[in-house]
Amino acid sequence: MQILDLTLGTPEENLALEEALLEEAEALAAEGVVLEDGAGEVMRLWESPSYFVVVGAGGSVEHDVFSLECKNAGIPILRRISGGGTVLQGPGCLNYSLVLRITTHTQCADVTATNRYVLGRVQQALRPIVGPVEIRGISDLALGGKKFGGSAQRRRRHCILFHGTLLYGFDLPLISKYLRQPTKTPDYRAGRAHMEFLTNVAAEAEALKYALRCEWNAQQPYRGKALELVPDLVKTRYGTNEWNFRF
């Protein structure tokens, strides 16, 4: 697997690169390109230096976000191509993204199986450094019954984008300031507010990155051309109100 440890300059560019990596891998798979030395599968690691809100593909800005507070604070509201709930990105939130070919990872036949497979491996990677990680709800990672990681998927015919977050040094009170209480919650949340439900893990970003890279054998430097797709994706999707505020 190739590794791309890269944070781009804007929130829009960072979301666009996620889609670009998936589209590049899907095109290679559709052409029948044989994978060699991990080519075509990528782990990306990134962390935004500034705060911004990300709504899931089918999420509602009105129902999920305190839009006026975000506007007053200059916090952008964007939409990603994967499902899942609304999150606040920023310093102390490490993002990991995996672009996987389904024929290589037969455990990824459907959404549920993919969650079980990928999160099981992430759990295995993190336990030695953060403690007894639990898989809770549909696609959460938790410690002591509190969530520190969420994830979502975007599936194509041949490839999957699986991306997740790991809270390790995040300013948790900001989440309640900018995000409403979600209408759909896992049973284990038990009605808890953001501050009572979420937690940071006691680990440094570099330790988390190293654990993930080792688990997925992500050693080969990324050498694809997905970055070339980013400007157009920002122009046509991530930089537009038509996409970001569609719901």
From TrEMBL:
InterPro entries: aa-tRNA-synth_II/BPL/LPL (IPR045864), BPL_LPL_catalytic (IPR004143), Octanoyltrans_LipM/LipL (IPR050664). Pfam families: LplA-B_cat (PF21948). SUPFAM superfamilies: Class II aaRS and biotin synthetases. Keywords: Ligase. Residues 37-216 form the BPL/LPL catalytic domain. The keyword Ligase applies. It comes from the Bacteria. The keyword Nucleus does not apply. One of its GO terms (molecular function) is ligase activity. PANTHER family: OCTANOYL-[GCVH]:PROTEIN N-OCTANOYLTRANSFERASE, OCTANOYLTRANSFERASE LIPM-RELATED. This is Lipoate-protein ligase A.
